Amino acid sequence: MDHLLRGLAPVSDAAWTLLDAEARSRLVVALGARKLVDFAGPHGWQHSATNLGRTEPVADTPTEQVRARRRRVLPLVEVRADFDVLREELVDVDRGAADVDLTSLDAAAMRMAQAENTTVFHGWTAAGITGIGQASPHPEIPAGADVDAFPSTVAKAVETLLKSGVSGPYGLAVGPARYTAIVETAEHGGYPLWDHVRQILGGPIVWAPGVRGGVVLSMRGGDFLFESGEDLAVGYDHHDERSVHLYLEQTFSFRVATAEAAVALTAQ
């Protein structure tokens, strides 16, 4: 049986189609990390670990004069965000309703995106994942509160990468507040701040909920590796007389291959 248990849910094919489409549309916008790092997969629900290509010694062996080493792997983490939909709303989908209330799905998608973005850029110690900002050996660069000075901050980060022999193009991940400030600000003379920062980077500025401060990173490829087992999917948990209780779920790992290929920007 499908582990998502969708066949047990009181949800029609049309409603599942709507839920999948709406979840996808919300997640594509908010999953900022995936726009900047290498993505591999999805490899499926049963894929459990990422091969690190390294080993560690095994102290004891069952036979004398036999040596052993154990392969090192990074286990994938399973992440789930619960939400619910009124059964009445799902029935209305089959009646042709175009304004179905999916507020709970919106919130779950945002939580999932924040969890993924935070993990990639800031790490998740309990899951054994080191984030890009954590791994970087470069000193953090204060972003400051003055948005007008932000191009200078980004230029310093790019210069740091160039001096380390890290080629571009470069991308920038920032949280919602900083992103909005960049979009809305015009420099002296009316030139958009957004265009100036883009010219410095040679790559995109990405809206990434969950990011604190910002991260400038190379997009040359091979430096930051996101591995997907089960990509984001909608599953069924249970239902009652009023609501159907569902969830968004995925499995993934993340690792930094080239720590010097990124510079973290502090919030203040």
Automatic annotation (TrEMBL):
The alphabetical list of record keywords is:
Encapsulin nanocompartment
Query: Where, subcellularly, is it found?
Result: Encapsulin nanocompartment
Please classify the protein's predominant subcellular localization into one broad category: other
Stored Pfam families: Linocin_M18
Q: Name one GO cellular component term.
A: encapsulin nanocompartment
PANTHER family attached to this UniProt entry: PEPTIDASE U56 FAMILY, TYPE 1 ENCAPSULIN SHELL PROTEIN
The similarity annotation says: Belongs to the encapsulin family. Family 1 subfamily.
**Which protein is depicted?**
Type 1 encapsulin shell protein
